[in-house]
Amino acid sequence: MVIVAPQPLAPPMLRPFSWPPPAKASLPVVLPAPSPLSPWPNRPLSGPMVPLKEWAQFTGSGGPRRIADSPQPTYEIRHARGATVIRVGSGRATVFGTDVTLSHPPQFIGGEPCLNRVDCEKTLFPLFWPGSTMLANTNRIVVLDPGHGGRDVGTQSMEGNRYEKSLTLDWALRVKPLLESRGLTVVLTRTNDADVPLAQRVFMAEEAKASVFVSLHMNSAAPHANRRGLEAYALTPPGLASTVVRDGEDNPRLVFPNNAFDTSNTLLAWLVQRAATRGAGAIDRGTQHARFMGVLRGQNRPAVLVEGGYLSHPDESRRIADPSYRQKLAQGVAQAIQQFFDLSD
Length: 345
Fold this sequence. Notes:
By secondary structure, this protein is an alpha/beta fold. 28% of the residues lie in helices and 22% in strands.
């Protein structure tokens, strides 16, 4: 994947964010009853930029407390589930120990650190109230999509003896029995070295009436060899800038079928990111957003794409070549998918 830094966007002027969110017939979620870990706010978040102290109050967190000034002014808010670290001027935040990428870096307004309201709603909110992403379709069918295949070999390892297509298939074949042992039904978009068009992968998930779609890939930053780590991608919500773009295009006004699942996508990506990085000991590059991924755009279910590491990095390429490491990645993905379903039971 060739990564191009997106151009910053002005904060979108959208409706105030309030809880509970307004009902939408097309939004496939069931709103939960409040719990001790999800206080029911009695007032909306105001404006396109939200003061960090207002977000802390909204989430029932303590703070914010300034904990560092270098390399960026850094704040911590403490919640019953753990700490969230916000860095002013940085698109990287840490929520309960796992990194997420914000589309709009926090900034000072009137001397107060502030978050973009759409980042609050689409990136942070699902992690504080995971029950708000509960599935409407809970048939416990998962489609695993081993990336590439056939003539589409994907990227190549530093050693030159392995292609992405074979590694992703091996990864998926390791995840499948782990999920089946948990009582889930698993459909693979390919079980051998076959060409499968992107549209066919989407169609297979539709035919299976799947609840969840997870596409497995390996990454590359060639010719640069210093980038490493795991990334989980969700489709970019409308109104937000993508964290990764291709061919320099990123229109925040575009809306795709899968955007009906924005909060579920965010939660699933974060669960995969957390479980896979911890289980495999991988570098945490944070959850990401992108619009160019055709295999996600048309999905009518929560869907994510996971980049399991950089084959262009010498050390990481050797780790990925180790079957025991790929088993750890598989265990992390399976654990995350199970956790996601548990929230819907």
